[in-house]
Amino acid sequence: MIHKYILKSIERRVLIFVLFILLCVFGYYSWTQLSIEAYPDIADVTSQVITQFPGRAAEEIEEQITIPLERALNGIPGLSIIRSKSTFGLSIITLVFQEGVEDYWSRQRIKERIEGVQLPGDTKPELDPLTSPIGEIFRYTLESSSKDSRELRELQRWVVIPKLKQVIGVADVSNFGGITTQFQLEIDPNKLNQFNISLAQVIDTIQKNNTNSGGSILRMGDLAYVVRGIGLIRSLEDLGRIVVDTRKGIPIFLKDLGDLKLGELGRKGILGRDFKTDEVSGIVLLLRYQNPSAVLKGVHSKVDELNNGLLPSGVKVVPYMDRIDLVNTTLRTVSKTLLEGIGLVIVVLILFLGNVRGALLVALTIPISLLIAFILMNFTNIPANLLSLGAIDFGIIVDGSIVMMESILKLKEEKETDTLQIPDVAKVAAAVASPIFFATLIIITAYLPLFAFERIERKLFTPMAYTVGYALAGALFIALTLIPAISYIAYRKPQRLYHNKWLEKITLLYQKRITILIEHPVRILQFAGGALLLCFALFVVIGKDFLPELDEGSIWLQVQLPPGISLAKGSEMADELRKETLKFEEVSHVITQTGRNDDGTDSWTPSHIECSIGLKPYDTWKSGRTKRELVGVLRNHYLKMPGYTISFSQPMIDNVNDKISGAHSELVIKVFGDDFKETRELTKKIADVLKSTPGSSDVGIDQEPPLPQIQVKIDRGTAARYSLNVSDISDLIEAAIGGQAISNLFLGEKKYDITVRYGEAFRNTPEAISNLMLTSPNGAKIPVSQVANVKLTTGESTITRESNQRHLTVKVNLHGRDLSSFVSEAKDNISRKIKFDSKKYRIVWGGQLENQERANRRLSIILPLILSVMFTLLYVAFGNLRHAFLLLCIVPAALLGGLIALIARGMTLNVSSSVGFIALFGVAIQNGVIMVSHLNGLIENKVPLKLAVISGATDRLRPILMTATVAALGLFPASIATGIGSDVQRPLATVIVYGLITGTGITLFALPVLYYILETKFTHRKTNKK
């Protein structure tokens, strides 16, 4: 059947050429339609329920908001983890769902559950935008030399954000920084006492005097008029002219009770950029599963519109983080390594084949197979990313074409002066077609178990498995269809071929060596046994991690300041941090975010800073430092700055870690316990032990220590004697001190809050709060101090919960040490040095460790599975167990080269390198299939066993050397690449490149000897039975 297929391909070669031209055109079109990402979206399906309850402390938020919502959300089908954070004025509940749960379905279930929860006041929980942890695709600041923070915030709120939200694929645009305008009445309580007016009366009057009315329709002649009563407040003047009460016929206006002014919403965060201290910033969030490149194209278009006319003169949208830069940088890295790999492949082909024409014809497999892969990726909605493209080894892609071309060239060498006939070409091509098919099938099969991975590792590597599988399928199609046809055209006429003298010498030396080894097999058996033992020993000692660090080309800092400091002081410390960071010549810009944003998606307090450090291109660094070295220098520099506790990360990785484990670090240790005071003591002891464990860095407790509070503790009995309810006192605290938004003011499309509060002098100290006056039902004035105890104390800043139980978290980053050995030593140290009641407290290790353990469990299933599948395919291919078992013996030798290379290069065994080993199994066995198939063919043709092994191994030397060399060199540039985006490629490529060295050595020297031994014994046994 294969013979007939190849014969028809050669006979109808014009049709074949037209077909491949159409495939190339369609492939290029598919490339333009592909979603291109720097890194795949590796996050789980997550949603957040965000509830803002302004003015309330963390304890009230937990009790009144978080716990009721958690109870309602428990038990949603597919829910994996439920976590929450309760902090001042904000509750965030994060729900992580199992793999396979659809985003929109899960969000609908959440909405159904929260709709029935009774929450205090007008509090309304909301879902976060449908984005992912790596969905921040564009960050910018609004900059102007003439407009202040309030004016820029107005432009952001009413011009910039609405315009950017018009882009299809934008989930949301989050603001950070700036002054949000309010129309405020700051009341003088002495005036209220003077006119005997209560605060509640003022609020009620404003609400009743800010309305339009409708009088239906009035008919006048043939026309109908809509009747409107216009009474909405449009300005501070309108607000001031509202009559609250009258005294002896004289109206008392609102303006008589205090100061009317344009105030500001209580600021939660301040953003600074470089040497500018109060900027307005925006973050564009990508709608999940959208094409980031396409969405960014729309964002760039809207930014151009804004900068070229929609914004006032002198105001510009200035980006400081654009995902397209990372995409382009990673594509350049991948393109560079791929082009270098292709170049090396072509050079090797020319050297081995001694024929430029043949080398270039084989090299056609590379672009065409890639274009075929693009067609299939576009059809199945598989995005292209750094790993899926960078993991394609074009040396492996051309292996089938090499074997096909080599067999046809060998035919031509035998008939240099003759014209090749189509049946002859089809015959030699068909002879190698079956080994090519099974060898390619084995390599594709090696990638199939990657689909058995879960969560992060699955999302990271399945696009790679699809891409490589598609490219290999395309390459197989090319090797069996195009190469025979195009080779026939190239070599059908009589022509003399170049004879490679150096290869002939190597072949002669190899033939002598293999003859000696067959006659004296003990050495090779001893070597193979020693290699197996060494392989096991190296596996035990090599360091083990989850994933290599992904370089995003920037640095992200989480900075903890002394607890309880004000937002203004935190902003001052952020200014100092930026100033010190900008002293380093590698730094292009520094952005600090002190506190949290306006929409509640962050839960930080004013004593927390997030800092984004932009870096100049690495090749422009005059210092010669690497990024890792720069991080070390910065860490030491920050240690000299008192009051700053800093941990290092990167923007996307930081967000992913937060979603995975609820903390911003590689490794987390969660300590569960209901008593926060005792739990904190235990957590501090654990943190101290971790700090003393070699390899730890940035150790700290994720939750801030207790913060200072002013508590107004109401005495119910005393309040009752004055006929006052708790609500009377609470309303005073909320409105007079905190400020209460009581109505809205509309100016065209703009909407502002109208708020009421007491003047600052009457609410800024515990004494002032104690002196605030309450009005009893009989009109008596009672100071707060009469019915409540006002005192300074402390309370929790943030209360974190997981699975409905409180916990504290120790966060740890690692420096210069692998994850497995660090965790092993740390656990041992904690068990020896810290004693605690396991019934009261529970310690859970998470973060990357949880991912690593999950991946290891899967790998323990995947590796035996892949070997079983390969064994089955080999059995099908050869029809006997001995040859299938023989070929599997190549695997440990390939493992040996990969392990030695990882250890020598200071790399760890992680998911990336493990995937490299999985791919290596298929590649290493491929050459064995080519060897054994040829030996079997010779024996079937009645060639004596010894002669068949020696001559057959010698015949296969050139194709095996070619396929192994091009496969190794095809990924060699990726194995030494250092640019942004090369981190995940490097371990995978290192394993394949160096594993092929030992694997090929075993294939060429050990495999023929073992084959000879097995066949000799099989022949003797067969003879004895007869």
What does this protein look like?
With 1026 residues, this protein is α+β, with helices and mostly antiparallel strands. Among the domains are: 1-33 and 354-499, Multidrug efflux transporter AcrB transmembrane fold (Up-down Bundle), CATH 1.20.1640; 44-129, Alpha-Beta Plaits, CATH 3.30.70.1430; 198-256 and 708-795, Multidrug efflux transporter AcrB TolC docking domain, DN and DC subdomains (2-Layer Sandwich); 501-541 and 880-1026, Multidrug efflux transporter AcrB transmembrane domain (Multidrug efflux transporter AcrB transmembrane fold). It is 54% helix and 20% strand. It contains 35 helices and 30 strands. The strands form 7 sheets. Strands 1, 2, 3, 4, 20, 21, 28, 29 and 30 form a 9-stranded antiparallel beta sheet that branches. Strands 5, 6, 13, 14, 15, 16, 17, 18 and 19 form a 9-stranded antiparallel beta sheet that branches. Strand 10 and strand 11 form a beta hairpin. The radius of gyration is 36 Å and the shape is elongated. This is Heavy metal efflux pump, CzcA family. Belongs to the resistance-nodulation-cell division (RND) (TC 2.A.6) family.
